[in-house]
Design brief:
Blueprint lengths: L2 H20 L2 E5 L5 H11 L2 E3 L7 H4 L5 E5 L5 H16 L4 E4 L7 H11 L5 E5 H10 L18 H15 L2 E5 L3 E4 L4 E4 L12 H15 L3 H20 L5 H14 L2 H7 L4
Parallel strand pairs: 1-2, 1-3, 3-4, 4-5, 5-6
Antiparallel strand pairs: 6-7, 7-8
Length: 275
C-alpha cells in the first residue's frame, strides 16, 4: 500500500469510528425504492436515519439534524417542492447536505428541479458517471452528451473525471462519480478508489444508500472531500467483503448490511485500493 492510500485508509477508519461515536442524525429525502435499505445502511454504520419528507416539518427539523441527503429518484412536483424547502432550511441552519441527481440530464422537469436545488449550495453531489455528466451539461459546463438509462451509468468513470472537476469548481463543492473506479474531486484534489464489486449493481438502491451513508460522514468530517473519500472507501470494501459470504443478490444484500455493521478500520487498511 502506498503512502497516499495508507493515509486515505487511516482517514476512513478514523471517520468510521467518529460516526459510531457521534451517531449523526441524517435526514434522507430519498426515493421510494431506497428508503428501507438507506435507513438500514445508516443504522448499520451507527448513524441515525430520519426519513422526514413533509415540507411542513422540514424547516423545524432542520435545526435538529446533522446532515441532509436529497435523492431525486422518484420525483413529483410535491416532492420537488419539499426538497427545495429542505435544501433552503439546511442552508439557513448551516447544515451540510448532499444531492443525488438520479437520472439528471434525461428529462426536462428533472433538470429544472436540479437547477432549483443547486442554488442552495450542496456540499456533495454524488451520482454515477452519466449523472455527473448530466449535471455538468445542465449547468452549461460541458457539451458532452449524457443519456442516463434508468439508474445505470452509460459512461465510464474515466470519461467523467474532467466533468467532476469542473462541477466541483463551479459549485464549490465535492463531486463524486461512482463506477468501476470511483472519482472524488473538490476541484483541486482527485481521489480514485478501486474497491467494490459488480454484485453491488445487482441489488436495487445500493447506490442511493451510498448517498445516505455519505451524508453520515459529511456530518462528522472536517470537509466534504474527506467525507466522500471515507464513505466510498468503506462502502467499496464492505461490498468486497460481503461478496465473500454471498451466493447471489438476495444473500449479498443481507451480507452487505452485516458487513457495514461489523467493518473495522483494520479491514480498510488491509483492503483499500486507490489509483
Amino acid at each position: 500500500m502506498g503512502k497516499d492510500t495508507a493515509a486515505l485508509a487511516a482517514l476512513s477508519g478514523k471517520l468510521l469510528m467518529a460516526v459510531a461515536e457521534k451517531r449523526p442524525l441524517v435526514q434522507s429525502i430519498t426515493n421510494f425504492v431506497s428508503m428501507d435499505i438507506a435507513a438500514n445502511a445508516l443504522l448499520a454504520i451507527g448513524a441515525s436515519p430520519a426519513m422526514v419528507h413533509a415540507p411542513e416539518e422540514t424547516p423545524e427539523f432542520a435545526r435538529l439534524i446533522d446532515a441532509l441527503v436529497i435523492n431525486i429518484g422518484t420525483l413529483s412536483k410535491q416532492a420537488a417542492d419539499s426538497m427545495e424547502i429542505a435544501a433552503q432550511a439546511a442552508q439557513i441552519n448551516r447544515k451540510p447536505w448532499l444531492i443525488d441527481p438520479v437520472g439528471a440530464g434525461g428529462l426536462t422537469f428533472r433538470n429544472e428541479t436540479m437547477l432549483r436545488l443547486l442554488k442552495y449550495n450542496p456540499a456533495i453531489i454524488r451520482g454515477n458517471a452519466s449523472e455527473i455528466i448530466g449535471v455538468t451539461r445542465i449547468l452549461g459546463l460541458t457539451d458532452k452528451a449524457s443519456a442516463p438509462r434508468g439508474v445505470d451509468s452509460t459512461s465510464s468513470a474515466n470519461e467523467v473525471e474532467d466533468c467532476a472537476m469542473a462541477l466541483a469548481r463551479h459549485l464549490k463543492c465535492t463531486a463524486v462519480a461512482t463506477g468501476d473506479i470511483d472519482i472524488i474531486s473538490d476541484g483541486d484534489r482527485i481521489a480514485r478508489i478501486a474497491n467494490g464489486t459488480p454484485m453491488m449493481t445487482r441489488v436495487t438502491a445500493l447506490g442511493c444508500s451510498l448517498s445516505s451513508v455519505t451524508g453520515a460522514f459529511l456530518a462528522v468530517a472536517d470537509n466534504a472531500f474527506e467525507a466522500a473519500v471515507a464513505a466510498l472507501a468503506i462502502y467499496g470494501v464492505s461490498g468486497e467483503m460481503a461478496l465473500e459470504q454471498a451466493a447471489g443478490p438476495a444473500s449479498f444484500r443481507t451480507a452487505f448490511l452485516d458487513t457495514l455493521y461489523s467493518i473495522r478500520a483494520s479491514d480498510i487498511t488491509t483492503r483499500l485500493r486507490t489509483i
